[in-house]
Amino acid sequence: MGTLFTIRLWADPADSQKARAAADAAFEEIGRLNSILSDYELNSELLLITRKPKDTWLPASNDFINILSISQQLSAATDGAFDVTAGPHIRNWRLSKRDRRLPRPDRIQDAFAKTGYQKVAIDTQKKAVKFAVDHMRLDFGGIAKGYAADAALAILTKRGFPRALVAGSGDIVVGDAPPGQPLGWAIGIRSLDKEDSKKLTDTVLLTHAAVSTSGDLQQFLDIDGKRYSHIVDPKTGLGLTERIGVTIIGPNAVTTDSSATAVSVMGKKRGLAYIEKQAKLECLIVAKDIDGKDIFIESSGFGEKRAKQTK
């Protein structure tokens, strides 16, 4: 999935071998999901399915159908701000980062012809998917890490180690609180300050929850003095130009991961309005004003998650 996963868990010394076995099983599950959802693995289920012809019902695994169904629901709820069919745009943007130039207009238009969540149909009963056009390219980069982190934590919990944390890049899911920390895991939220990579915007305390942060601190492209994020807007086919960092807190990582991407694309106003309508989600949005100063915007319940020592 193009990143590193980390597992932290607590166990009695007598259970150390069982704990290692549980962690190994969790990592194996992450690897299994990578073989299904990655667009870097040439023989992943994702790439094999998208090579098939249009208007054909294609059998798919439970995990593929599950994550695609979740993605489609979020696409509809956010008016396409989150869209896993944006793979052709993302591929163009990867080439742009390599070549240090914007995609040609004809390539952008060609990508638009192959994107749009409305062009995907799912049969959840028969576990099958169908595409309305040929050469669609799905990209689960904004949701797969969260989905895999949730699956890994579920394995650790099932094996008797609920005091655990699973992190996949900016997506973190936690179970029971660690020893001596009754209020939960202290999770730091990184700032948009490129000059100080260790600077934290905030710290939250969580148990049985997830937190995901999306932003352009490390991945961006500068072309002709204009900064473009690695996050692609499905409606333009280009990287975002607004400096924005979005942190979402919610019940599981598959939700926070995908929602952080969606809110980044929607922007401050629309993104906050969307989160305020979601009963189980909270957010912190950090943006830059015209003078380069940080602007902090948070949902009404975010403060309840904040560590008390943080101001």
Tell me the overall shape. globular
CATH fold description of the domain at 163-305: T-fold
**Average pLDDT figure:** 91
Helix content: 25-40%
Q: What is the radius of gyration?
A: 20 Å
Element string (H = helix, E = strand): EHHEHHHEEHEEEEEEEEHHEE
Largest sheet: 7 strands, antiparallel
Separate helix tally: 8
CATH class of the domain at 163-305: Alpha Beta
Range of strand content: 15-25%
Q: Report the strand count.
A: 14
The low-confidence runs, each spanning 5 or more residues with pLDDT under 50, are none
Question: Which structural class should the secondary elements be placed in?
Answer: alpha+beta
Distance N to C terminus: 35 Å
- The CATH architecture designation of the domain at 163-305 is Roll
Strands ordered across the widest β-sheet: 1-5-6-9-12-13-14
CATH superfamily of the domain at 163-305: ApbE-like domains
